[in-house]
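Researcher: I've been going back and forth with a colleague about how 2-dehydropantoate 2-reductase might be arranged in three dimensions. Neither of us has a model we trust, so I'd like an independent prediction. The organism is Zhongshania aliphaticivorans, in case that matters for your notes. Sequence below.
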Amino acid sequence: MALRIGIIGAGSIGCYVGAALAMGGAETSFLARERIANIVAEHGLRISDFRGLDHHIAPAHLCFFTDIGAMADRECVIVTVKSGDTEAVAADLAKVIDSKAIVISLQNGVGNAAVLQKALPNHTVLAGMIAFNVLQGERGHFHAGTDGEVIIQESAMAQELAAFFLASGTPFETHDNMTSVLWSKLLLNLNNPINALSGIGLKDQLSQRAYRLCLAALQREALAVLGSAGIPIQKMTAVPATWMPALLSLPDFVFKRFAQSMLAIDPVARSSMWEDLERGRKTEVEWLNGEVIRLGENYGLSAPANERVRQLIQQAERGGRRDYKGDELLKLISA
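Model: Here is an independent structure prediction for 2-dehydropantoate 2-reductase. You can compare it with whatever you and your colleague have in mind.
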């Protein structure tokens, strides 16, 4: 019998992951907002990536729900909601899921698994993360425009899921130190607000030195904080994390020569924070830059660049600018 998987929060990441698992033979159900449920009911679910994957699941073969009660029989529940919704979702899950169900967090930020575990003390809760970007298109289409893997805490369930990801070619790994992995991913995700404030595609943004200098400033502060906290950093790109600020600071022609893998991005790719602002949703800036700021405070360190970016994103959430040129943004962050 196929593994029964429930996707809680079927937005861009949830729909992509759920469809990839279904390709491998998992019996996948999706909990989604009514808007998404209506779209896939009409058009089905299509996933694609920059490597050439293009797979469509017809509406008749999809199970989308708007009531969390539909997750009661799931053996594995994968949570992909925004970090700000984790606590409420955890409380709802505690009322309905099977006592033996395993819960996995595939979310941005570093503390979501702990929030889920607190609400579900008798369940196994596994931390996880996704290193690639997924952009929601039209007619139920979700496109992975950047490279990266799914990483889940080492466990028997993670090994079982690995087999289901093979059909879609989705890179998959397990790891036994997810705290380190999640903070390492957060370092990369510090580009999310820079991209959101630029108003342009990821590839275009990362090709311009002024925007990269903004990201380098955020990463330098984060690396200093993580060093004080004694949190080791995983190598998640071709370049070690500690070298990244220096690489980002190189002139454009040098960067493009030595960092080709970083620019192996679909031109349409945008950050999830850009998508949140585009759709009028609250962003996850508190669970990205805010985490750096709060951890720094614990060790007597300030993170002024991250604080300024947090303020600019909060202004954008209220309708403020999100079309800054690179030099403009760098000046604001450096002030």
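Researcher: What would you highlight for our discussion?
Model: I'd start with this: The first strand starts at residue 4 and ends at 8. After that, consider the following. Residues 199 and 231 are 33 Å apart (CA to CA).
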